[in-house]
Amino acid sequence: MTTWVDTPGEGRERGPLGIGRAWVDVLVRPRGFFRAGVVPGDQAPGLVFAVVVAFVFVTTRFLLVPGSIPAIQGGPVLSATLALLAVTLLIAPATLHLTAAIQTLLLIVLVRDRAGVSETVQTVAYATAPCALAGLPYPSLRALCAAYGAFLLVVGLSEVHGTSLTRAALAAVLPASLVFGYAFGGFGAVVSVAQAWALI
Fold it and tell me: For residue 4, is pLDDT > 60?
């Protein structure tokens, strides 16, 4: 889980440049990325990627959405710092692995010949790519990011585990709801957009 093996292919280089390239690749050509960039037994790049996405999401919200910083002793700067540390060191890694565990159980039920747990962790991690933009204060953008993240998860599961899009979609419903609907605020964003349209 913590070992970063030699770069196996596209979008997997070490450092900020590698993370940036992975982000662009998974957004622009997801099938090719999931086919070449997800390898057995190499969770570290995916874990780092998901943590960076969560960090950008939370930081953007703290900077641009009034009242989004949790009230912790020591004022807003200390509160934001502690919250960011909690997200990057605890919440994001724990959420990723819990979601991957749930995803693995669902895949066991729905897909007979499948890849391993490590590949599932990476697939969930890279599917979060659009949510780096979900912290911007626009509900329609957040809803779009969540929807595209769910789409990427389905495509990634189909490609990595060698199954149909239908089976991948069935397996992804619950994990996508947890990650994109709740953690990244997709459901709330959809409600906000619907309410705004109702008032027009």
Answer: no
Integer Cα distance of 58 and 31 in angstroms:
28
pLDDT at 43 over 90: no
Residues 6+ apart with CB under 8 A from 119: 38, 39, 40, 160, 161
Confidence of residue 67 (pLDDT cuts 50, 70, 90): confident
Q: CA distances (Å), 64 to each of 11, 69, 95, 115, in order?
A: 30, 10, 24, 40
Q: Give, as one character, the DSSP assignment of residue 130.
A: G
**In Å, how far are 55, 59, 71, 179, 183 from 75, measured between CA atoms?**
20, 16, 8, 29, 25
3, part of any domain: no
pLDDT tens digits, 123-175: 999 999 999 999 999 999 999 999 999 999 999 999 999 999 999 999 999 99
Phi, psi of 43 (to 5 degrees): -80, -20
Number of domain units in the chain = 1
d(CA 140, CA 2) in angstroms, rounded, equals 36
Q: Is 7 inside a domain boundary?
A: no
